[in-house]
Amino acid sequence: MKADLGVRPGDLVKHNSYKGLLGIVVEINLNYAGTPVAVAWTSNRYGLGNNCVHHPDRLEVINESR
To answer: What are the tens digits of pLDDT across the range 18-32?
Structure first.
């Protein structure tokens, strides 16, 4: 079963809750419960860390990977 989360590895995304926070989706793990999307953020100004997992509902795709 393949889930459509609206994001793919390589997509440039922004976080809907944090103004100006951009990142690249680096991994999607459908076996991980709750928040399966790992994102490498451009900054750590909100204390999320440079790489962290998020639920795809909180991410908006800015530019899709090819």
So the answer is: 888 899 999 888 776
**Under DSSP, is residue 15 helix (H, G, I), strand (E, B) or coil?**
strand
> How distant is the alpha carbon of residue 44 from its chain centre?
14
Phi, psi at residue 58, to the nearest 5°?
-95, 0
Question: What's the pTM value of the predicted model, to 2 decimals?
Answer: 0.80
> Which phi and psi (to 5°) does residue 54 adopt?
-145, 155
Nearest to residue 23, comparing CAs of 48, 43, 7, 47?
43
Residue 12 backbone class (left: φ over 0; alpha: ψ -120 to 50; beta: rest): beta
- Asked whether 14 and 60 are in contact (CB, 8 A), the reply is yes
